[in-house]
Amino acid sequence: xxxxxxxxxxxxxxxxxxxxxxxxxxxxxxxxxxxxxxxxxxxxxxxxxxxxxxxxxxxxxxxxxxxxxxxxxxxxxxxxxxxxxxxxxxxxxxxxxxxxxxxxxxxxxxxxxxxxxxxxxxxxxxxxxxxxxxxxxxxxxxxxxxxxxxxxxxxxxxxxxxxxxxxxxxxxxxxxxxxxxxxxxxxxxxxxxxxxxxxxxxxxxxxxxxxxxxxxxxxxxxxxxxxxxxxxxxxxxxxxxxxxxxxxxxxxxxxxxxxxxxxxxxxxxxxxxxxxxxxxxxxxxxxxxxxxxxxxxxxxxxxxxxxxxxxxxxxxxxxxxxxxxxxxxxxxxxxxxxxxxxxxxxxxxxxxxxxxxxxxxxxxxxxxxxxxxxxxxxxxxxxxxxxxxxxxxxxxxxxxxxxxxxxxxxxxxxxxxxxxxxxxxxxxxxxxxxxxxxxxxxxxx
Amino acid sequence: xxxxxxxxxxxxxxxxxxxxxxxxxxxxxxxxxxxxxxxxxxxxxxxxxxxxxxxxxxxxxxxxxxxxxxxxxxxxxxxxxxxxxxxxxxxxxxxxxxxxxxxxxxxxxxxxxxxxxxxxxxxxxxxxxxxxxxxxxxxxxxxxxxxxxxxxxxxxxxxxxxxxxxxxxxxxxxxxxxxxxxxxxxxxxxxxxxxxxxxxxxxxxxxxxxxxxxxxxxxxxxxxxxxxxxxxxxxxxxxxxxxxxxxxxxxxxxxxxxxxxxxxxxxxxxxxxxxxxxxxxxxxxxxxxxxxxxxxxxxxxxxxxxxxxxxxxxxxxxxxxxxxxxxxxxxxxxxxxxxxxxxxxxxxxxxxxxxxxxxxxxxxxxxxxxxxxxxxxxxxxxxxxxxxxxxxxxxxxxxxxxxxxxxxxxxxxxxxxxxxxxxxxxxxxxxxxxxxxxxxxxxxxxxxxxxxxxxxxxxxxxxxxxxxxxxxxxxxxxxxxxxxxxxxxxxxxxxxxxxxxxxxxxxxxxxxxxxxxxxxxxxxxxxxxxxxxxxxxxxxxxxxxxxxxxxxxxxxxxxxxxxxxxxxxxxxxxxxxx
Lengths: 445, 578
Known about the structure:
The complex is a heterodimer of chains A (445) and B (578).
Chain A: E1 3-6, H1 8-17, H2 19-22, E2 33-35, H3 38-45, H4 50-53, E3 56-60, H5 85-95, E4 100-102, E5 105-107, E6 110-112, E7 116-118, E8 123-127, E9 136-144, E10 147-153, H6 158-162, H7 164-167, E11 168-173, H8 179-188, H9 199-215, E12 218-229, E13 232-235, E14 238-243, H10 251-254, H11 270-281, E15 285-290, E16 297-302, H12 304-317, E17 325-330, H13 335-349, E18 361-366, H14 374-394, E19 398-402, H15 408-422, E20 425-429, H16 437-444
Parallel strand pairs in A: 16-18, 18-19, 19-20
Antiparallel strand pairs in A: 1-14, 2-8, 3-8, 4-7, 5-6, 9-10, 9-12, 10-11, 12-13, 12-14, 15-17
Chain B: H1 2-7, E1 18-19, E2 27-32, E3 35-42, H2 45-51, E4 57-60, H3 67-77, E5 82-85, H4 92-104, E6 108-110, E7 116-119, E8 123-125, H5 132-137, E9 146-150, H6 154-166, E10 170-175, H7 186-195, E11 201-207, H8 212-221, E12 229-234, H9 261-270, H10 282-292, E13 320-321, E14 328-329, E15 332-333, H11 335-338, H12 346-355, H13 361-373, H14 382-392, H15 397-405, H16 415-428, H17 433-443, H18 462-474, H19 479-494, H20 502-516, H21 521-529, H22 532-555
Parallel strand pairs in B: 1-3, 4-5, 5-6, 9-10, 9-11, 11-12
Antiparallel strand pairs in B: 2-3, 7-8, 7-10, 13-14, 14-15
């Protein structure tokens, strides 16, 4: 639940869908396709004639920028603007066949930092648009603090990123500003360097752009650059994030939009995906992030705030290398949901013993619950103990429990009795013990 | 919340009303200790606010889909000092607009995504504090000396517990909510606590992400906040991971070094705020600061214990009570209204038991006049006839009476209801007599309360004259009767006997009575809908029916059989259906 990045292709599609509403004075050809390989591109050419007729530009559409500097924009074969469908298709197949290195930061043209390595899976293909550098402009909008910010520049492309302070005009808007106030502010702040004959159109375009940003619930929207040729606009490159909390109101406006994971992010494990799926189906909250599955301290913590302080405390006292996971269960999950979540964790933590031969530590922590029934959720954990007791013993697990809230006395008593009966090592504490103190106790053993 | 109120011995519930758009009920029952109380329900926030203008806090429990609309409506209605919102994940743009509108209107918003707030010993809102057991363990049942502000709801409880163990509890506390855009932020709450003399020191539990803590640092540096603050930002672990891992709430994501927990903790420490080395050291820090303040110990107040087992009541009674020394009618012992020296009559008893009010003399006398007027109308009317036939079949008084009463309805006695309903409708909608007549024609019903078998303008019904004279003399005003008279002028111009009859006069004057007593038009409509007017007829006519039944018993009349020559027999042979 937050701001989520979307593909350039989807950003353009959303703007194109509402073009006449926001940009009635401009035309945009919306010639763009998203493909995963060369044959898909050729298939697309059967319905998009321009793919056969015009020189093309192809680039990955996977949420990362600096594609030019990474050598991942195809716009020339022998010379700029001569890329055929055939060439684009073969280039896409070539780039998607092996893992690619991508750098996210550059000093000049020299990459800095470590590259991310991953497969390229999605490409956006568009016509090559011959234009003059002077026709390129920059515009973006986002929210900073309590205000919306509009950034405009008479220079687009890489120029603007490298000379942000001198080249960009910033305008701030209150959330309560009216359309007239917004239009007036934009008109009064058109960058001085915009060509005189473009100034009026630039203002019109910027007003429509900012209105689209607001009404379509973008969290971030950037066109860098756009090309203004009279009343004709080309959107050469776009970056966008949506406020996905607005998703329920924007079903029609956004259409079928996808939230891809970033390039280079590890694929989510099946266990994490299973927890996500369970989370989506319940009114409660189940979250799991694997940090270092081979590490020895595992946490099963109730509550968003508590899960953070446990992670903080483990990092402080044991060091980050010992923390295997981060996650939480909260909002009154059922016994069954809690059992599923616990079993997922126990399965992961008992796969391998600690490489240094130490025992594993399981922190079943939580603050004092507001309304979650502790005895009910602990029943789920006890059921998971039953199924994993031998595996838990095999990796020499020591269990530390701390919890308060509705029915906590019964919950603590039940879990202690069950663990003792099964021969699991367990220590159990209630609200009289400081919430994270079990981390200290576990590490002193 | 009501359990909390009861526990701390609050005299009246902190909940004034509930807005329940889909409920058909007018109230909902809730436990108050071992007892139950009723909280009124309203369909809309506007209705609730109009009926309960003293309520100045709105707890908005609507979902993320509608919470925005509910808040904006409440802001437009006005009169709320504080609005709390529990929904998590309201669209950011809507949340920002809502928060700003509230700020401009001087309304404090707590949340979105909050578990609530508490002023120990006074009231609490929403789930904050958890169970009553925990509230008492954490000393949230009486005011302490700490002002507590957190983002997280679960950790609010935890902090309350820590403060109870290491200090003397809290004076007020707010969980500001976990969403990125919340209405009141740390500084808003801390500045209020700075002004609250009960707050001796403050505790702030922040989070990685955002820059709100810096506003607090500014206020401390500039001297706006002078009371000691103990603070900690959770999420120090976030620095080890890139932005892909979301720790905790939606608001908890660091953009840049300034927003990391570690950076904020250091900045607060440098500004002179008491910041422990780790979260685990927070209890010791609280103890240290609290002890340095040398605050006098707080006496522990007595509390009520909420019973473990409570049974909801099957029935509710709001009119009379037989639990005390003497049974009461709406709070008045029977002896205080029964004997002649009390000066009270049957009209007073009706006003107490039917309307739970003490009606003035003119109104109770009018009620009695009505009852006397409708007490009987001879043996031939259907109800009296039924009662007589049943009595002659050897049945008891009660059996005979109910057969008579069962005929009362739209055709017998119902004109009182109908007259009140239609004349009020016409008057409410400013229909002139002509328009009213054509409206009734459209409805396809004769005007209830108009017309008499034999009486006319020249030969007036003296019962009607009596009622009208009484009203003219004693009612403050009779707007509906005045209107009905203009209708009567029109109908009698068409036909002599289309006069306002006794049923019509009673129905119409009842409306005038209620208007003069200050009831709203809606309340009067409810009286009409629920059959209250008919009830006067039922009470009055029961006197007559019983008279007829006793008359039959006295006369020892035999079983009645209707003469066959008074029946038209027309019986065809039933045809088979294929």
